[in-house]
Specification:
With about 180 residues, the protein is mostly helical. It contains seven helices and no strands. The relative contact order is 0.08.
């Protein structure tokens, strides 16, 4: 294998590792700016293609997520005509502020996601399955109730109890991560 092919292979491996590691963050950023999940998923695919095309411009050691979100920002701006038929359209200034806030919150959202994953593992399997089914794309309370063998009323009550339990657990997990004696 010649030197250029080896360099290209290494570059592809770095790209795949970065995309695999940060795709969720990039999607979360896009989804905060786009009103529809399917549109956000389409934009993630478009953004991913542009990232692949422009990866040689990425400087190793710099912030990959910030770089990728900047590409997503331009894809979103380019695609805004598609969303113009939506009932709620934000002007560019509002969209820019939301994008800035989403970027600033990315680390906190990752911590919350990890805390939620730990808290979900603490639930009884039947309760965990109820929650996961309820929030599965295309699913709802009726599906979750049926799969868990609960009535609709029992499912609603269990979900309310579990949401509070998970909220308290995540809050506790995040509080335990804060350095002691310092401000949060």
């Amino acid at each position: 294998m010649n030197r250029d092919a080896m360099t290209e292979t290494d570059s592809r491996k770095r790209l795949m590792a970065l995309m695999t590691r940060h795709q969720r963050q990039i999607f979360a950023y896009i989804y905060t700016l786009v009103p529809d999940r399917h549109d956000a998923e389409d934009l993630l695919q478009e953004t991913s293609l542009v990232i692949c095309e422009k990866f040689e411009e990425f400087r190793p050691g710099s912030d990959f997520v910030a770089w990728a979100c900047q590409i997503a920002w331009w894809r979103i701006r380019y695609s805004r005509q598609k969303f113009a038929r939506s009932k709620v359209i934000f002007d560019d200034e509002v969209l820019a502020k939301v994008a800035q806030t989403a970027g600033e919150m990315a680390g906190e959202l990752d911590e919350r996601h990890e805390a939620l994953a730990r808290c979900l593992k603490k639930l009884a399997p039947r309760d965990r399955e109820l929650v996961l089914t309820r929030y599965e794309p295309g699913s709802g309370v009726a599906e979750a109730a049926q799969r868990s063998g609960r009535s609709m009323d029992a499912a609603y009550k269990a979900l309310n109890r579990l949401r509070k339990l998970l909220h308290d657990c995540v809050t506790h997990e995040l509080a335990n991560q804060q350095p002691h004696g310092g401000a949060a």
